């Protein structure tokens, strides 16, 4: 490794992308192209970065497969930064195998973390958790340890495990400080700030209370029967009954929760569930059927009892009933709340959950995408929608083997 390449790599390790470019800006040999690509990625010029990294990969000879593998992994990370999932993960897996075989452990671990984050961004939370678990007990360099803890925090928050998420973010902060990468420190700070923002509203007796994620988690663990209008379901302790794809049943459960401990007249339930103001006997018969279905689904958590004028919700526990709503009203707030579980949703599934037309949901999603609060993957019929990650995505990228991540 010549002195200019080494100086450029040291500048990148310190987070000085402009300083790195000064050393190699006029060079077109493969190592210089790779470092220029990394520097451009750290400056946010992702299109140019991918072009340079591809040129570098082509420039390395057949006897330089480790250098080519590093370029493949670096390009995969840039693709994540721009949310480009069109490429096959096989190239990243093959590059990881090459790096492991040649004892470039830091870069092989980095490739595995990129795979974890890709799975998180695609909403494949179980696969991400399984891959992340393989890193437990391994000695990671500080920068990679911070990335791993950020991934752990996001995975925990998707399932409302706030205490583990906070612990992971504390470890991420310590690791990022050891790494000394400003962009990584900013990502950790952004993730920690997200925990302090309102995550839901608790509605009761015409009043509302904004709750943070830790307060939501405490409410769910309290034994209270929670009618969750964010994730569309019923929660009590460890029990969870999803109703996102049963919009009529959820509408009935929400109406009963809003009136608790009182009852709701049959006419009001019919108007809410069936969107009609002129009910007849067919609506009343259908209401009895749907109430029976709700009783069957929620039987382990609550009962639905008939009263002279309607129905009332009777929780089985002693904690009462709470209604959680998205932090903001309207279709956009409801969409953001549904997407917050980290899973990938089709527009038809979202429309079914919200009881709205697919075209209305598509318009709302377009507005959310423009505001950076939702993101699509796939095209046409395979398109799915997800929430943005907990924080931005820092491109650490790879360094030459003479300057490992440490």
Can you give a write-up of this model?
With 406 residues, this protein is of the alpha+beta class. It folds into two domains: 3-194, Alpha Horseshoe (Serine Threonine Protein Phosphatase 5, Tetratricopeptide repeat), CATH 1.25.40; 200-324, Winged helix-like DNA-binding domain superfamily/Winged helix DNA-binding domain (Arc Repressor Mutant, subunit A, Orthogonal Bundle). Helix content is 56%, strand content 11%. It has 18 helices and eleven strands. It has a six-stranded mixed β-sheet. It has a three-stranded antiparallel β-sheet with strand order 6-8-7. Strands 10-11 form a two-stranded antiparallel ribbon. Strand 3 and strand 4 (233-236) form a beta hairpin. The chain is elongated.
SSE layout and pairing:
Layout: H1 3-13, H2 17-24, H3 30-42, H4 46-59, H5 65-81, H6 90-101, H7 105-121, H8 125-133, H9 142-158, H10 162-179, H11 182-194, E1 200-204, E2 207-211, H12 213-220, E3 225-228, E4 233-236, E5 239-242, H13 247-259, E6 264-265, H14 266-274, H15 281-297, E7 302-306, E8 310-315, E9 321-325, H16 330-339, H17 347-354, H18 358-370, E10 375-377, E11 384-386
Parallel strand pairs: 3-9
Antiparallel strand pairs: 1-2, 1-9, 3-4, 4-5, 6-8, 7-8, 10-11
Helix pairs in contact: 1-2, 1-3, 2-3, 3-4, 3-5, 4-5, 5-6, 5-7, 6-7, 7-8, 7-9, 8-9, 9-10, 10-11, 13-14, 13-15, 16-18, 17-18
**Radius of gyration, CA atoms, in whole angstroms:** 26 Å
- Read across the widest sheet, the strand sequence of neighbours is 2-1-9-3-4-5
Please name the CATH architecture of the largest domain: Alpha Horseshoe
Which segments are poorly predicted (pLDDT under 50) over 5 or more consecutive residues?
399-406
Query: What characteristic shape results from the CA principal axes?
Result: elongated
CATH superfamily of the largest domain: Tetratricopeptide repeat domain
Output the CATH topology of the largest domain: Serine Threonine Protein Phosphatase 5, Tetratricopeptide repeat
Order of helices and strands: HHHHHHHHHHHEEHEEEHEHHEEEHHHEE
Amount of helix = 55-70%
Q: State the major sheet.
A: 6 strands, mixed
CATH class of the largest domain: Mainly Alpha
């Amino acid at each position: 490794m010549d002195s200019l390449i080494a100086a450029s790599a040291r500048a990148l390790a310190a987070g000085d992308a402009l300083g790195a470019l000064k050393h190699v800006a006029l060079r077109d040999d493969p190592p210089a192209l790779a470092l220029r690509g990394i520097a451009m990625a750290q400056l946010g010029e992702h299109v140019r970065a991918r072009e340079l990294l591809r040129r570098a990969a082509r420039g390395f000879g057949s006897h330089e497969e480790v250098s080519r593998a590093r370029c493949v992994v670096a390009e995969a990370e840039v693709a994540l930064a721009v949310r480009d999932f069109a490429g096959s993960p096989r190239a990243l897996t093959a590059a990881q195998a090459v790096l492991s075989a040649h004892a470039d452990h830091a870069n092989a671990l980095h490739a595995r973390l990129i795979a974890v984050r890709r799975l998180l961004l695609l909403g494949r939370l179980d696969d991400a958790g399984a891959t992340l678990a393989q890193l437990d007990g391994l000695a990671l360099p500080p920068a990679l340890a911070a990335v791993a803890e950020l991934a752990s925090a996001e995975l925990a928050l998707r399932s409302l495990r706030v205490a583990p998420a906070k612990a992971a973010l504390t470890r991420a902060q310590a690791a990022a400080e050891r790494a000394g990468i400003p962009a990584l420190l900013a990502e950790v700070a952004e993730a920690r700030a997200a925990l302090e923002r309102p995550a839901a509203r608790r509605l009761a007796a015409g009043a509302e209370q904004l709750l943070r994620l830790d307060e939501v988690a405490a409410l769910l663990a309290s034994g209270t029967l929670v009618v969750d209008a964010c994730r569309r379901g019923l929660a009590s302790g460890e029990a969870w009954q999803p109703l996102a794809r049963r919009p009529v049943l959820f509408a009935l459960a929400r109406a009963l929760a809003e009136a608790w401990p009182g009852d709701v007249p049959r006419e009001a339930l019919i108007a809410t569930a069936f969107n009609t103001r002129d009910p007849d006997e067919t609506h009343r018969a259908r209401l009895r059927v749907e109430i029976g279905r709700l009783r069957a689904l929620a039987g382990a958590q609550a009962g639905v009892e008939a009263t002279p004028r309607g129905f009332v919700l009777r929780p089985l526990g002693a904690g009462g009933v709470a209604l959680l709503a998205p932090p903001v009203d309207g279709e956009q707030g409801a969409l953001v709340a549904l997407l917050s579980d980290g899973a990938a949703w089709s527009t038809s599934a979202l429309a079914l959950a919200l009881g709205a037309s697919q075209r209305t949901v598509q318009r709302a999603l377009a507005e959310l995408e423009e505001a950076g609060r939702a993101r699509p993957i796939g095209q046409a019929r395979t398109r799915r929608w997800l929430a943005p990650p907990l924080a931005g995505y820092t491109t650490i990228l790879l360094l030459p083997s003479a300057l490992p991540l440490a």
